[in-house]
Amino acid sequence: MNKKASGQAGKGEAVGIAASGRTRDIIRKHGFTFKKSLGQNFLIDQNVLDRIIEAAGLDETRGALEIGPGIGALTERLAQAAGKVAAVEIDRRLIPILQDVLSPYENVSVVQADVLKTDLHELWEQKFAGCEKVSVVANLPYYVTTPIIMKLLEENLPVEHIVVMVQKEVAERMAASPGGKEYGSLSIAVQYYCEPQIVCKVPSGAFIPAPNVDSAVIKLTRRDKPPVEVRSAELFFKIVQTSFAQRRKTISNNLTALSGKERKAELADLLRGCGVEPERRAETLSLTEFASVTEALANAGMIN
Ligand SMILES: C[S@@+](CC[C@H](N)C(=O)[O-])C[C@H]1O[C@@H](n2cnc3c(N)ncnc32)[C@H](O)[C@@H]1O
């Protein structure tokens, strides 16, 4: 197995395709049929697998949690690179195929479950005892990308990196800076907990069946502490969500939902005090500005 990354793509560039017939052979052997409703687009490209494994930075002291192993193309590579691997797959039909494909590896355990209904803290304790660090590495089912990412971020799991394949536009939203249309509450949530880096863009031909959208691999490195100080993450995200409630409205108009119309003038003064003109839109505010606004509104008793 070639472990060396062969694609030369730099940050965010498209990676070259090197399709493998192995996935097709396994699918044929087991007579597997894809379920679109479960986001089943299997990765058949060796260059992309190389890039994911390289970005995850695994070794025998580290663990990897894979969400949605499919027929195990990435799982096999994780088993070779990490000390322990746990893979959570919702589709029961894939379990015997995974048992067959992964039979040479003693360090992999497959769990049949919906990851969104799984107690990940318990899974961590059961599957990763003795691992120094654990990363999440996956080609995510696109229909549930955001709920999975938010679960991983909000549950405060001891994750080192999250290296995931997602729809290209979603990767761009996660990594976006203030001022553009991609920047929104997902960017802020991701950047509050992690440092994002787009590893490579991936064309639809890297999968079978080919999805209708382009994809990208993104690496999220968990921060030791958030880049801004707020009295409570819950209040901070309440301000962010409310500020983006209607993107075309000004921040002042959106935040009136919290302050009440009768305190609109006071709200405008508070925003100015934070260096934020009330006519600005949420998409122009940095994390630091959202943190200042959170503190000002909390001090004024406009949110609790
Ligand atoms: C995009 S495919 C990736 C398959 C494989 N890892 C690969 O790269 O070829 C997504 C996988 O996630 C599984 N899946 C979908 N929803 C899931 C959920 N809620 N929990 C766990 N697995 C899920 C699908 O059955 C499928 O195997």
UniProtKB/TrEMBL annotation:
Keywords: Cytoplasm, Methyltransferase, RNA-binding, rRNA processing, S-adenosyl-L-methionine, Transferase. It is found in: Cytoplasm. NCBIfam families: ksgA (TIGR00755). GO terms for cellular component: cytosol. The gene is rsmA. Its main location: cytoplasm. GO terms for molecular function: 16S rRNA (adenine(1518)-N(6)/adenine(1519)-N(6))-dimethyltransferase activity; RNA binding. Its EC number is 2.1.1.182. This is Ribosomal RNA small subunit methyltransferase A. Specifically dimethylates two adjacent adenosines (A1518 and A1519) in the loop of a conserved hairpin near the 3'-end of 16S rRNA in the 30S particle. May play a critical role in biogenesis of 30S subunits. Transmembrane segments: none annotated. InterPro entries: KsgA/Erm, rRNA_Ade_diMease-like_C, rRNA_Ade_Mease_Trfase_CS, rRNA_Ade_methylase_Trfase_N, rRNA_adenine_dimethylase, SAM-dependent_MTases_sf. It is an enzyme of class 2 (transferase). Belongs to the class I-like SAM-binding methyltransferase superfamily. rRNA adenine N(6)-methyltransferase family. RsmA subfamily. It catalyses: adenosine(1518)/adenosine(1519) in 16S rRNA + 4 S-adenosyl-L-methionine = N(6)-dimethyladenosine(1518)/N(6)-dimethyladenosine(1519) in 16S rRNA + 4 S-adenosyl-L-homocysteine + 4 H(+). It comes from Cohnella faecalis. The keyword RNA-binding applies.
